[in-house]
Amino acid sequence: MKKSMIYALVAAPMLSLAPAAHAQSLTEPAAMVMTKTPGCGCCDAWADLARAEGHTVEVIETYDYAGMKADHGVPNDLASCHSVKVGDYVVEGHVPLEAVKRMLRDKPAISGIAVPGMPAGSPGMGDDPKAKFDVMAFGGDAKEGEVYYKAGVE
Fold it and tell me: What does the alpha-carbon distance between residue 33 and residue 117 come to, in Å, rounded to a whole number?
């Protein structure tokens, strides 16, 4: 048997699996690493919501709040209680998981998204789907004050 025929017989099954493996990786929830201050219950509640959506969430606790924000490149005016690394992005605060999914799907040229402060009804802060607040984009191509997602509206 010719070498080219052997290579074709060996490679064909692997090539037929490649699209399925790629499709599966697009649908699997992304792994997350959350950095938060110790004992913050609302941060734990947000992590539990992410886990319920199928994400794995590693939690790192630190008392260095300012350092945590600086390490993640979060602008001071967008800071909240926890920072999450997911893929190449930062998710700051009580961001709805729908906004996270959109960001991971669309892959905008930004550093991340944030919900400044701790709005009542946001995920981990009461989980009210009717709560209205803005999710802001930051870094990269994001303009200052750019709204990425409108919770309670979209």
Answer: 20
